[in-house]
Design brief:
about 290 residues, mainly alpha, Serine Threonine Protein Phosphatase 5, Tetratricopeptide repeat, elongated
């Protein structure tokens, strides 16, 4: 056999071997892909994560946060490939539930978990995390240290925070800013008994008794959440007007409903020494 023929034969054999190797590699790749697909499908079929997540969102939308939380936690316990986005969304739902339940430190922890995901909206998550921390600090009486966080959240679209910012300004005696924040809240959500209470207290403090009385009376006809506070302010109004008999009558009635209220008892003791006691007012402590 000539050298030329041997060389051609060698080239054909080498080319065929390369072709066989490519087929083997392609087959291996297809097998691996098929196995991966089977694993993914198996993960989806065997996992109940999506079902639990769906149930959780349905109960969340109904306002049944306790049941929603159970389903969300069950969903997080389920292992499933490529479910990081679902898990991130679940933590967002849980964080919001914590806010609704006024579990602010738990909400902070949940937002920290959300921040660990690459697809998280870092800016919005940080605002919500800081807002939750501010609410926690607000409940502890830290007003000066929280107002900036409330304002940032309000300007980012979480406008209910204006009422908290306003109260922080009230507690730090920055009344112009307080009124500005309350006005922004009222423009979007209207009045409620809390705002009537805050504004009545402000106008009593500044000596604008007509304004204070108007807010007190309107507040007493609104929701009953701050009814006790408004009734105490009504007593303070009559004290400021030096109408001690009217104030004494009101505090006497109040103590029949709230006999253990310390502020009402202090008002009673103060007014007892100033009322005339000749208009049917009686000592509610008699007979004890």
């Amino acid at each position: 056999m000539s050298r030329r023929r041997r060389y051609d034969r060698y080239r054909r054999r080498r080319k065929k071997n390369r072709y066989d190797i490519k087929k083997i590699v392609l087959f291996a790749v297809l097998v691996i892909a098929a196995i991966g697909l089977l694993i993914i499908l198996g993960s989806q079929i065997l996992s109940h994560k999506d079902e639990y997540y769906k149930q959780g969102t349905e109960y969340y939308n109904k306002g049944d946060y306790a049941t929603a939380l159970e389903y969300f936690n069950d969903a997080l316990d389920e292992k499933q490939l490529f479910s990081k986005k679902t898990d991130m969304n679940i933590h967002m739902y849980i964080a919001d539930i914590c806010l609704q339940q006024q579990r602010y430190t738990d909400a902070v922890d949940e937002y920290k978990r959300v921040e660990l995901y690459k697809k998280a909206d870092k800016e919005q998550t940080e605002i919500l995390k800081n807002m939750s921390q501010a609410l926690s600090d607000f409940n502890k009486g830290n007003y000066a240290g929280t107002v900036d966080l409330f304002m940032k959240a309000a300007k980012a679209g979480y406008t209910t925070m204006y009422v908290y910012a306003g109260t922080c300004y009230a507690e730090t005696e920055q009344y112009d800013k307080m009124l500005e924040c309350y006005d922004k809240y009222i423009a979007e959500y209207g009045y409620n008994s809390y705002l009537y209470t805050q504004l009545a207290a402000y106008y009593l403090k500044t000596g604008d008794l007509d304004q204070a009385y108007g807010y007190i009376q309107t507040g007493l006809t609104s929701d009953k959440t701050y009814n006790l506070n408004l009734r105490l302010l009504e007593i303070a109004y009559y004290e400021a007007m030096s109408n001690y008999d009217e104030a004494f009558g009101l505090v006497s009635d109040l103590l029949t409903q709230y006999p253990d209220n310390e502020q009402a008892q202090k008002e009673y003791d103060f007014l007892y020494t100033r009322a005339s006691h000749d208009k049917g007012n009686t000592d509610v402590t008699e007979g004890e």
